[in-house]
Specification:
461 residues; binds protoporphyrin IX containing FE; Cytochrome p450; alpha+beta
Amino acid sequence: MTVAPPPIPRAAGSLPLLGHAIPLLRDNLGFVASLRGYGPLVEIRLQPGQSTIVVNDPPLIRAMLVDLAPTLDKGRFFEKMGQLLGDSVVTAAGTEHVRKRRQLQPAFRHAEITRYVDIMREQVTAAVSTWRPGEVLDVREAMVRLSLDMLAATVFSGSIDDDAFRRLREDLSVVMNGVGARIMLPDWVERLPLPANRRFTAARDAVRATIDTAVAELRAADRDTGDMLSLLLRATDEETGRPLTAHQICSEILTLAVAGTETTASILSWVLYELARDPAIDARVQEELDTVLGDRPVTFEDLSQLPYLARVIRETLRLHHTGWLVTRHTLTATRLGDWEIPADTELAYCQHALHRDPAHFPDPLVFDPDRWLDDGRRRSGAPASQLPDETFLPFGAGKHKCIGDRFALAEITTAIATLTRAWHLGLTTDRAVRPVARATVRPSTLRMTPRPRTRARPTTI
Ligand code: HEM
């Protein structure tokens, strides 16, 4: 006789017309973290009458992302992104997703990333050359601009002139912010004749027009400019054998800008924050950079030679993860562990809460890069690197795992290795910076002051 699983509890605090809007508005991250106490699955209401099952248990999260992936759609969050930016690898499901992912994959191959690192470093060098000693920087904003510059330069550097590049970057920035704001709002808000809506539509149309022109020119000239746009132009649609249309390419690029900019920018900001908070960690990063690089700039070959910086970045991806509700949607009745989930149900999990779960990470709020060491130098508990895979999911898992994972790690390492050698960034206040969850989890406000970094040079006797 099989025993029926316990019913899925509904989290406290739901109201008939508001669902869980009040606890979510008051403190969305605190609310989602509190859901762990309800067990493996818990129901919340993001909209009145619409239930979302939050999956807390790591093996069930893995089942949702990997084993059940063929029977699940991507959910509300991604649907909205598709409506705003067009269909892309980020929004597609099923065979359509497999096809789109194959078309995009060549742009993220190891061989391409080796070339992108020089482009990324040039953008970092240009950005930090405008900083002035002692000025107060809004670091999150600076990192969003920098991440967008690095991505835009990788995609377009060879294909459009400087003026078009500057305009495109501004327009992409408006689109990115607009998507962030709209993803949480009801659809009718987008149709109101508000200045913000007009700006969003104008910027999105301008990006499409610029990319259309660049695609037409590159096709006419039959040139390989060596950037990502050039690679996408050569990709073909598997079913028809035809090259991607300018419209398809544009939808992919718009969603890459959204998927790859805020995320990278938040992680960069938190790395700088943690380096400022702990001078010993900062000193170890600089020592490693001095030993490996001497006086030369960082290159692709160096990225794998910086194990301590890699652990700092890994620990940042753990403690300060950008994902708070990654959604899926059941197309048919689906068995998840012992539970039968009806068709048309929204599922979700929260990486931010998972990575701070004391059951998997001792002293979860302590920033300790050495928790990733396999030897005895870490502070406590089992080495985090020996935990089951499903407890640490910085880039997700399964067929929707981040396509830009190596790209992102290359960007973050290149940026930190370049900018922290030129500047030391100090916090302007002792107050801890809070994470806030919007489209992604990011630092509330992070103000820092750059001071030129002086390196002790080896003296010759
Ligand atoms: C630190 C930075 C980043 C983090 C933490 C991150 C995290 C993630 C995660 C968790 C997913 C899976 C979402 C899901 O399960 O539905 C994802 C998907 C994706 N990411 Fe990233 N990402 C980062 C940077 C980037 C960059 C730089 C790019 C591109 C330039 C990118 C492009 C994508 C795309 C296209 C997908 C969808 C893949 C698919 O559905 O097949 N990401 N990312």
